[in-house]
Design a protein that fits this description.
single chain; about 90 residues; alpha+beta; three-stranded antiparallel beta sheet; about 20% strand; rod-shaped
Length: about 90
């Protein structure tokens, strides 16, 4: 169910109405029976955390370059210790 905001053209009354997204829009004001229309407004949507764009929405080429760059940032001592482990 979705909550829609409606406004009356005749008396200016605004009201919220909960209905299915597939339902036809309301046509009449509950106060004066005038014509109503849906009010379109911004939705308060906040993304928190590390950010979905940087973690979910990047293409494969970007992720590959990013991985190569982070691997290239290792010092030679770090890369030697990870590449050549003692075999026992």
């Amino acid at each position: 169910m979705v909550t829609y905001r409606y406004s009356c053209e005749k008396c200016g009354y605004e009201f919220d109405f909960e209905q299915r997204i597939t339902a036809p829009p309301k046509k009449r004001c509950p106060k004066c029976r005038g014509n109503v229309y849906r009010v379109i407004h911004a939705v308060g949507h906040i993304l928190k955390g590390s950010g979905f764009y940087t973690t979910d929405n990047r293409n494969k080429d970007f992720r590959k370059r990013e991985k190569e760059e982070s691997a290239g940032a290792m010092t030679p001592a770090d890369s030697n210790s990870t590449k050549h482990k003692d075999k026992k």
